Amino acid sequence: MGVSLLDAANPPRKDNCWRRWIAPRLRSVGLEWVNFQVMRSTHASLMRELKVYPKVVADQLGHSLDVDLNVYRKTALGRRKEALDRFESAVGVM
To answer: What is the CA radius of gyration of the chain?
Structure first.
């Protein structure tokens, strides 16, 4: 009988899951350069775009709120452009 991925007594190891399931799928779609840290950062950034409460995301990643907000989350290009446009508008730049 196989071991369930949800078996709390025998949780899967991160490296084993990566090697057996995640990396092959990433390679098959041309994303072999993606590593575990890239996936964590992507998760945090997507959750930000979905307006998930930051403390929930920090808990999911196993970090403090400070680490989540300052290390893993990246501001989307559209939001950065919007902030720049608003700034330029406020100071009268065209």
So the answer is: 19
